[in-house]
Amino acid sequence: MAGEVLVVAEQTGGAVKRASLEAMTLGARVAGELGSGVAALVAGEGAEAAAGPLGAHGAAQVVTVAVDTADPNAWAHAVAEVATSRGATLVLLAHTARGKDLGPRIAGLLQAGMASDCVDLSVDGGRVVAKRPIYAGKALVTVTGAGESLVASVRPNAMRPEEAAAAGEVVTAQAAAPAQGLGAVLLEIMAAAHKKLELTEADVIVSGGRGLKGPEHFDMIEALAKELGAAVGASRAVVDAGWRPHSDQVGQTGKTVSPQLYFAIAISGAIQHLAGMRTSKYIVAINKDPEAPIFKLADYGIVGDAFEVVPALTEAVKKLKAATV
Ligand SMILES: Cc1cc2nc3c(=O)[nH]c(=O)nc-3n(C[C@H](O)[C@H](O)[C@H](O)COP(=O)(O)OP(=O)(O)OC[C@H]3O[C@@H](n4cnc5c(N)ncnc54)[C@H](O)[C@@H]3O)c2cc1C
User: Fold this and answer.
1) What is the mean predicted confidence (pLDDT) over 20-24?
2) Separation of 201 CA from ligand 1 center, angstroms?
3) C-beta 267 within 6 A of ligand 1
């Protein structure tokens, strides 16, 4: 029988990140195919409360560790210790900022292979095979670890979190943080002043580009996003100009998103932007240039002036919502 599948989950105050529940769902499916056990690992305040949702998404056991989660080095050592003691051969994480930081550290400590930003995992001849985008998302490649163990991070929104039967049993593990090499100590967690919908977890994203001509015109992007319950994204040109924060940037050097619906408004569709959003289920492009490259990828395209199209679209959504209440 293959070793255990261990899913490293992120939580705040017992609320598990949706991307971690997606990784949990995938981990449970792969464990089923391998015929192996599946557990989740959580740390930080509220870790025990996270056992419910993790169990409901397939974790047979939920391991809590007392480790300062602000420091990736401490976290990685704790995960590696738990993975080794439990005989885990597949460690899964969500491909979030935290997951990107942790994954390679854990792989290094376990001397395991690392597959980043996977959109699916399967089992072939008893080995775990990961599918991941390459060449800025232009192709998909399947990879596997050279050795017995693999660490894989899962692209947020690449799959839906699915509930399983029972709640997980909580097991508290003794995993000590290393005494040396700590780079950061968690003093306090401060909630953001405005709760923003997380780009990587949003089902709908409305992104604006340089064609909007100034930061003030993002008001109309925000208005459309509000009607659609969407998160707001941006191209790098907009972020470089200081119109939007870097946390809004979608693309190769920004966030990778996979929503159900992605609006690219006044965005040309440079390959570096496409790298971050090409796996969106439906793409709607609004651009006044009929030759804009974004139209090659878009499922729906509107050739027109964003300053006319976007307010009209917002009004139409408003009317539709009013009519369906
Ligand atoms: C190493 C590297 C990494 C990069 N990483 C990223 C990244 O992560 N994300 C990213 O986005 N880019 C990235 N870029 C930059 C990328 O190459 C493009 O420069 C950038 O995406 C362009 O942004 P844009 O489409 O908003 O602007 P532009 O290319 O200037 O396009 C503006 C578009 O708006 C349209 N437009 C103008 N006025 C209107 C109007 N009134 N109504 C409708 N449409 C209108 C125009 O027709 C045009 O298509 C990277 C580049 C490099 C070299």
Assistant:
1) 96
2) 23
3) yes
